[in-house]
Amino acid sequence: MCKHFRLAVTLVLFAESSMNTEYPAPTPPAVFPPWPGETPPAANPGVPFTVPEVDNMPDFHGNPAAAEFVVFAGGNYFFAMTELVEAFQRQKPELRGRIFFETIPPGIIERQLENRNTITVGNLTLSVQPDVVQAGEQRIAALIEKGVLQGPPLRFLKNSLAVMVKKGNPKNIRTLEDLAKPGVRLANPNPETEGIARQIQTALEQAGGEELVRKVYETKVKAGEAFLTEIHHRQTPLWIMQGKVDAGLTWISEPRYQMMVGHPVDFVPIPPEHNREGIQAAAIARNARNPGAARDWLAFLCSNEAKSVLEKFGMARPQ
Questions:
Q1: Nearest to residue 57, comparing CAs of 32, 84, 27, 86?
Q2: What is the reported pLDDT for 234?
Q3: In this structure, what are the phi and psi dihedrals at residue 190, rounded to the nearest 5 degrees?
Q4: 81, 108, 221, 273 from 180: Cα distances, Å
Q5: Is 164 found in the same domain as 212?
Q6: Are 204 and 171 found together in one domain?
Q7: What is the pLDDT of residues 92-138, one digit of tens each?
Q8: How far apart are CA 251 and CA 249, in angstroms?
Q9: Which of 44, 69, 171, 306 gets the most CB atoms within 10 Å of its CB?
Q10: Can you say how many angstroms the Cα of residue 72 is from the centroid of all Cα atoms in its chain?
Q11: Which of 56, 151, 72 is nearest to 119 (CA)?
Q12: d(CA 191, CA 194)
């Protein structure tokens, strides 16, 4: 009994001493989405409750319950979507604060559509019918073929690849072949959910053959020098700024945006003979709740105002 009592006293004293010890607070990352410039486009945002790294949903914009117009958009131009929606609302003031849009990987959007437009993030489940869906032109064509979307599709955005790196390019990455060098850590978009992965692998093959593709997407992953992203438009710049990776192939518009908001990233251009272009298309959903607004949105995407937003970030209108 006395032995157990002495042990209990020892544990209490140890606990008290631990409580009195001042430990340095963990250093949070310098940035964490949502990034500067992003605001909730809801008519009434209610109680703000965003806690970085804990409760944080930067790719879901607005109030789905009160929305009168809904867009599911591929996430790699999320920064442009914010400005496009704002410009569209100026033309359609009756929709101000009544637009909900997602900016998530196109493969996830397709799965969401297959699951009755339902998606779960953490403990929150959303079911909302889109009026317009935007993704790579091949995926949009396939969804029209399945009867999920209505044709014809609208091709409205063209983008090209670049290598996103830390500001100053400390690893001295100059070519796509440099990505395979030992010690260069990479963020690789996941081929299962992110359409950009197809263009990336084609660009790597054009630059260094199938061997370069294997080194970047297989050898480095197995060696722990490459990590597959789930939302590359958020994770690649964040991992670079957190020091987890050194580089990642993205659309050129993404490092341009990060540089505009003052984040310490840069990019390495890819020569035309190795680069790849991606075309984004949009189509109206078969069961759109607001087909009139959907048609107005597609017309807006063809406007000079929309074109200027895209060009601001290095994107263009397809020919």
A1: 32
A2: 94
A3: -70, 120
A4: 33, 28, 11, 19
A5: yes
A6: yes
A7: 999 999 999 999 999 999 999 999 999 999 999 999 999 999 999 99
A8: 7
A9: 69
A10: 13
A11: 72
A12: 6
Closest CA to 94 of 57, 43, 58: 43
HEC per residue, 97-108 = CEEEEEEECHHH
Residues 223 and 182 in one domain: yes
- Measured between alpha carbons, how far is 244 from 210 in angstroms, rounded to an integer? 26
Domain around 173: 159-269
HSE at residue 19, side-chain half, CA atoms within 13 A, is 6
Helix (H) or strand (E) holding 234: helix 232-242
The tokens describing 293, both together, are 């607004």
Q: What's the total number of domains in the chain? A: 2
24-39 pLDDT tens trace: 444 445 678 888 877 7
Entry pTM: 0.89
What is the rounded CA–CA span in Å between residue 45 and residue 40? 7
Query: Residue 12: is its pLDDT beyond 60?
Result: no
Nearest to 156 by CA among 257, 308, 298: 298
Spell out a b/e string for 21-40, using b for 16 or more CB atoms within 10 Å of the CB, else e: eeeeeeeeeebbbbbeeeeb
Buried b or exposed e, range 115-127, using 16+ CB within 10 angstroms:
eebebeeeeeebe
Residue 287 and residue 259 share a domain: no
Give residues with Cβ within 8 angstroms of 123, minimum separation 6.
none
Mark residue 151 as left, alpha or beta (left: phi above 0; alpha: psi -120 to 50; beta: remaining). Answer: beta
